[in-house]
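Blinded run. Sample ID left blank on purpose so nobody reads anything into the name before looking at the predicted structure. Input follows.
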Amino acid sequence: MPLAIVSVTNDLTTDQRVDRTCCTLVKSGYEVLLVGRRMRNSKTLAPRSYRMHRMRLLFDKGPLFYAEYNIALFFFLLMHRHDLVVSNDLDTLPANYFAEQVKHIFSSNRKYKIPNRKSPIFHLHDCHEYFRGVPELVGRKTVTRVWKWIEDRIFPKLEHVIAVNQSVADLYTAEYGNHIEVIRNVPFRKPPTGAGGRGSPNIPGGRKIILYQGAVNIDRGLEEAILSMKYLETDAILVIAGIGDIWESLKQFTVEHGLSEKVRFLGQVPFQELHAITLTADLGLSIEKDVSINYHYCLPNKFLDYIQANIPVLVSPFPEMKSIVDQYNIGEFIDNHHPEALATRMDSMLNNPGKMAMYRENLLRAAGELCWEREEVKLVEILRNDK
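Blinded prediction complete.
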């Protein structure tokens, strides 16, 4: 059986998009090995339909981490027989690309065949975002130039590239000219009922739940969402499920503003457990700030997870999210990030049962269409080299 090695820079606990890719690879006839990194606080991984490996590294972040990760991954790929590598985003691309170049120089013996595949694909690159547009790189000209120098030398040579949405695909095509297939980051179809309780002992009963799930990083609107709880008239609690760069400081921020009774931090939640928590929510937030091109064109995991859980959404009016909200009429948009304005918009939704029932009815159709079972067909075609 041919082996596909898929690589990411995270610890594999919460990455649903990569899990879906790996499951489709398994269905397409591959044995799969997913490679990430082990961090100090990494949780034990639940068994999956494919193998997993987490590398131990000396550095956790910064230039030394990315250099160490790519060097370690490069030698890992050279030392392990494989028939396909899947790189995810620019931070895993160098190791995958150069390992494949070395493999092609020293080996022409790739015997394994995928059923119905017209010609071999050895490297698939997956753009989860417009990497050089992430907020963490805004204003860091030297670091951005380094990443661009790397990308300029590799990206135009890639033959098989997929992207999370049309906006990201268009940005890369305009810059490098590659043909890029759009495979949206939509979840597996999930039942919209059956949570069986509040989903976590940290979530109290009897109150409405406003949910944010995902990375707890800068410019996600989280400080303003927390402050909005001062002005919210509805008896509700803000639940934050996830960790990130500002997780500890955000918890302290909540304490300093006397909002600990109105905000709950669940920490890192394995994606296998997250849907049960999402089902408990009354309103889902995705209120990123328009501070970078990557945020502006984002189509976040959480937004699509809310849809599968039948949760009306309150989101930033960015192109990718706005087109879906407008098409299906499943929620509303924020006007700005002022805490009072956020509270007013949340109150107007939570206290309008008729409107929320309409959104939930529309969400059923959206969930049936925006699911991985429909989207993965395009990935299967690429793996068979039909595109």
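Unblinding after everyone has recorded impressions. The chain has two domains: 3-186+372-383, 208-369.
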